[in-house]
Amino acid sequence: MKKSLGVKPYLFPMPVLMIATYDENGTVDVMNMAWGGICAENMVALNIDEEHKTAKNIKAKGAFTISVADIDHIEAADFFGIATGNKMPDKFARSGLHAVKSEHVDAPVVEEFPITLECKVAELQHLNGEFRVVGEIVNVLVDEKVLDEKGKVNPTKLNAFVFDQFQNGYYAIGEKIGQAWHTGAGLMK
Is the separation of the CB atoms in 72 and 111 below 8 Å? Predict the structure, then answer.
């Protein structure tokens, strides 16, 4: 039997995304967010509170990067969700992580995170009282240690984790259990 819980943001898994921007002084800011993801072949969408420092930076610079957080850097990743750049200007410096300027957009690339999407703003939207940033992916950077022998990203090497909306936990991504567009093919007969 199913029990009704009302309206809740209950999808699982939710990504743990690191959104990196520069402020007006060139200071690196990184925000931990789960309410975003791929929305087209070369596009991402971020649902973000417009008062966040990251939102202000995105509006000012027209660019941002998205990195996948990995378990090795979970402490810094969680810190980026606790601390606000509006009140803590040295937030990134406190993390102990390192950033370099993207070659493609006016945003930082956090060196320790294994995969980074470099994005330029395509559209800023206000929908139903919410603020959404739609970004165009202009390049993807990947640490070679997460590539397989064919040069493709091996998800198990990313060492990524996901967010749980139910109890606010983080969970490691586990083993591969099937192959997309193949595992269910037997039901086509």
Answer: no
